[in-house]
Amino acid sequence: MFPQFAGTSETLSKAASSLVFRIGTDAHLYDDPEDVNIGALLESRFDSEKCEALKRLLALIAQGFDVSNFFPQVVKNVASQSLEVKKLVYLYLLHYAEKRPNEALLSINCFQKDLGDPNPLVRAWALRAMAGIRLHVISPLVLVAVGKCARDPSVFVRKCAANALPKLHELRQEEITSAIEEIVGILLNDRSPGVVGAAAAAFASICPNNFTLIGRNYRNLCQILPDVEEWGQILLIEILLRYVVASHGLVKESIMSSLLCIESSHSEKDVFDVNVALEDNGIPSRTYDSELVNLVSRSYIEGLGEYLTRSSDTNARLSDLNGARFTSGQTNDDVKLLLQCTSPLLWSHNSAVVLAAAGVHWIMSPKEDIKRIVKPLLFILRSSGASKYVVLCNIQVFAKALPHLFVPHYEDFFVSSSDSYQSKALKLEILSSIVTESSISSVFKEFQDYIRDPDRRFAADTVAAIGLCARRLPKMANTCVEGLLALIRQELLTSDIESGNGEADVLIQSIISIKSIIKQDPSCHEKVIIQLFRSLDSIKVPEARVMIIWMVGEYSSVGVKIPRMLTTVLKYLAWCFKSEAVETKLQILNTTIKCPCFHI
Amino acid sequence: MLQCIFLLADNGAVILEKQLTGHRVDRSICDWFWDHVISQGDSFKSMPVIASPTHYIFQIVRAGITFLACTQVEMPPLMGIEFLCRVADILSDYLGELNEDLIKDNFVIVYELLDEMIDNGFPLTTEPNILREMIAPPNIVSKMLSVVTGNSSNVSDILPGATASCVPWRPTDVKYANNEVYVDLVEEMDAIINRDGVLVKCEIYGEVQVNCLLSGLPDLTLSFANPSILHDVRFHPCVRFRPWESHQILSFVPPDGQFKLMSYRVKKLKSTPIYVKPQLTSDAGTCRISVMVGIRNDPGKTIDSIILQFQLPPCILSADLTSNHGTVNVLSNKICTWSIGRIPKDKAPSLSGTMVLETGLETLRVFPTFQVEFRIMGVALSGLQIDKLDLQNVPNRLYKGFRAVTRAGEYEVRS
């Protein structure tokens, strides 16, 4: 009707709707928490006002302010009947208990009373709060509480008991350690998968080498593994794997063992190397480097964290640990059971579980069965974008050890423009490790497209990958060199190549790749060296000039044409010596010395 | 295990911190992280695992919010990354979407969620159904109620029955008047078309999303008509392995509400629904571009929301682009977007224009890649067909609904 009123009503309705959205939210607490007197609210009779005060305190904590001075007043509310108040008090308490130990102790009685509450949620919170206080004086009380809750009828409470154990253990009190481990053992034997998962986490942080606890329950643990929830599965898989390696040794038929085996013809090796010969049906089979086997086995038995942080002299002392043992995957039931129970986990929707299961198969599975990990790993690259980089790092290791596993799947490593730079670099490396004569033509077609990518760093990486492929597949060497020379010719037509420029990187990388190809068989590539030298005039980048001049010097006696050109070469180098960069000058001198002198 | 979680806004400011263990992690780690993001740019931002001088940092970025988790002990890195992804999923489920203001508006819920999801650095409860029972999501009604009654408690005082059952992903006492199950096939087409116009790779990544509104404890069986086309599969924890291993049948007790039952991939598709033909020619410092878009393989349903996006290479100073259908926008970061919508019946949409190269450059040597988006409602281009969906103990009225949609996923055309 009237434009000025319409404007107002629109702004009014906008304000009203934003008000509606902000009503009932805690936004006001975040923005201006200092406004109201928190202390007064905490003393109020009304639960709602106490909640308001506690939420304001939490807002301050979330922003990083220190509000520990309200501790005594907050603690007084721990016995509140309202669950909301209780929950908020617990959150505050757990944040500040270490700073105010004496006042935290005031609430212990209340927690102990709550441990007997008929509501399992209250029992669980009380246990979590007690364990979260982390004070030495109350650790016996907490131990008793945890022990009681480990036998609680509610699954949730038993799970919280398992979670409380590492907190107790962190207090580092010798006298309660064995009691804690006993409770871990009880919980590992629990019938509920949820509790077993939490118990596995407790085991991993408290007593990761206490393999008797695992040995007692091995079959049950393997069989309950598919039902344990995902986070517990990750840790439980690792624990079971380490148990099998510790009690049985490495599996003979697996890829791990074959990577550790050495040729028996290396008799000129260090005489102190003690080699373990494996007898198999009376026929001596491969020999293993026992040092390496010991190393690998110990790293699994002790757990990677422990192993990496130990200093090197203690490594020598623990050599009495017999790691150089082997077992057969075909006859050992424990190994077979573990492989069988982890196979379905390769289909889990949690990529950490898939990778852990793939790791078990990589280490324990016989070589003919190992290809079952390939498709699940490749699927993670597409279905879990955040996990792509970590899985690519692992695939890189697998592909270097067993390239034939990934050869049929080379298309999965084609670079997409949405990949991060690091993922692209990893994919290029993997492609160059798995390329074969049948796939090389499509791979090279892709590479040609990548070289035209606006990101010149990625283009330079592609050129390096071409060099790697050519080294692995010598039959393609000529094609590669032709392609690289064409690329260099094209690069030189662009006028603005300067050192440090992206284009310069591509040029330099092309020459590096050509150099590495020539190294394989210099006499075949005589013409290439000559061609490069002839283009020296148009190449201004010092790093590139250095390499070409080096090549002439290094291969100065190769073939027929190069020795004949040497006079011309040296004359040219002398003529441009004065205007060169320092590193080029040094290389010219180097080359001159290398050239045979009979023409001078 | 994890020691601390930080949520950072898109300017690096800390929105929220949650200390998880007794070892306090100082906020200076966030400053260190952000300094590196500023100095090293995108390559640092996309690294999911970073080693700082004091801690290992896991990071993911969703909707501009950076989720950081710090630890000083050795742990499987994917565990940290997957957990952060789960936190982001649950928060966006609870709050509707992820943005800084929503998190600040509901920080107590976020804090309580984090407290339930992770305890002493080890993930405790990440099942959406259980969390929803313990901590009620914010919605307009409960907010109004809390203002009116003064009771702003969203914390349940009853332990969810699901935590004790052997199907922990499903609440135990679910009742619906109408029993309904909806199954959606949500697919994304990934394709690479190279400079010569050849289709290098064409695959479909798909998800079977189920919305289950059934009472009690239903036991469902879902089978496909052609499961052999599935190249890869991944399942929700509720799916039983043995029926799939032996007969390719999905047998499961579903969670309540919306969930992702399985994800799959179908490979080696022969052709794409639309074609995009870019052409760039350059001469004496200017470059002419022309892009044509059209329908190649009509899927039978309308293709809509077609958008083409590409980044102008750094050597291009300015661009003047027009199209005969749809709108063209060039942003300041040199990303050009052409929103086509639907392909009209009478003409083929085409984009054309000229671009000026930087001084000294005669011809264009590097070529942009075009990202394509589209949506086709009502069809699953992989050809996957659902055969039947059965329910043990069928109630009186059961409604089953099936839908499909295909979008473009990682679909790129090189020029």
Quick recap:
Chain A is 65% helix and 3% strand.
Question: What does this protein structure show overall?
Answer:
The complex is a heterodimer of chains A (600) and B (415). Chain A has 600 residues and is mainly alpha-helical. Chain A is 65% helix and 3% strand. Chain A contains 32 helices and 5 strands. Chain A has helices at 3-22, 27-31, 38-43, 47-63, 71-75, 83-96, 101-105, 108-114, 120-133, 139-149, 155-169, 174-188, 193-206, 211-224, 230-248, 255-260, 290-302, 304-309, 312-317, 333-342, 351-364, 374-383, 388-401, 421-434, 440-451, 456-472, 477-493, 502-520, 526-534, 542-554, 561-576, 582-594; strands at 250-251, 261-262, 275-280, 283-289, 326-327. Chain A has a 3-stranded antiparallel sheet. In chain A, strands 1-5 form a two-stranded parallel sheet. In chain A, strand 3 and strand 4 (283-289) form a beta hairpin. In chain A, helix 8 (108-114) runs antiparallel to helix 9 and helix 24 (421-434) packs parallel to helix 26 (456-472). Chain A starts with a helix and ends in a 6-residue tail after the last helix. Chain B is an alpha+beta fold. Helix content of chain B is 19%, strand content 42%. Chain B has 8 helices and 23 strands. Chain B has helices at residues 28-40, 42-45, 77-95, 100-105, 107-117, 128-134, 140-149, 241-247, and strands at 4-8, 14-19, 49-51, 56-62, 65-71, 118-119, 122-123, 179-193, 199-213, 220-224, 232-235, 249-252, 257-266, 274-283, 286-295, 303-311, 316-323, 327-330, 335-341, 350-357, 369-377, 386-391, 398-414. Classes of the chains: A mainly alpha (600), B alpha+beta (415).
